Amino acid sequence: MSITLTEESASVLLSYMNKEKPIPEYVRFGVKAGGCSGFTYTIGFDSQSRKFDLDFESCGVKLLVDKKSHLYVKNTIIGWSNQLQDKGFKFDNPAAKGACGCKTSFQIDLDRIVEKKKRPNWMNSDYI
Question: Is 57:27 a contact under the CB 8 Å cutoff?
Fold first, then answer.
């Protein structure tokens, strides 16, 4: 249940990281409430992990995701587009149900992130 970067998005992130002084150790990825669909992605740099962070590595980039955000972004693949009118990071998130027209916010499919509990066999009985 990790976060994965494409080679191209990793290259872009490393390029930006190397321009920072001092060079940050991590890329912090997460979500926050907002946008027209409910949630927006966040990407930034950080030099240290925090108590509730999960850490991943992809394509040579160290990633941090707080546990709360991880519920909404686990197994997300972060890509990069160089298209003239669509330049920027692209998120392939299996938990996303939909995105807004400007593609900066998304909706969550709760059924994909909440594990459904199985009903015991006795609850399926005709006697209840």
Answer: no
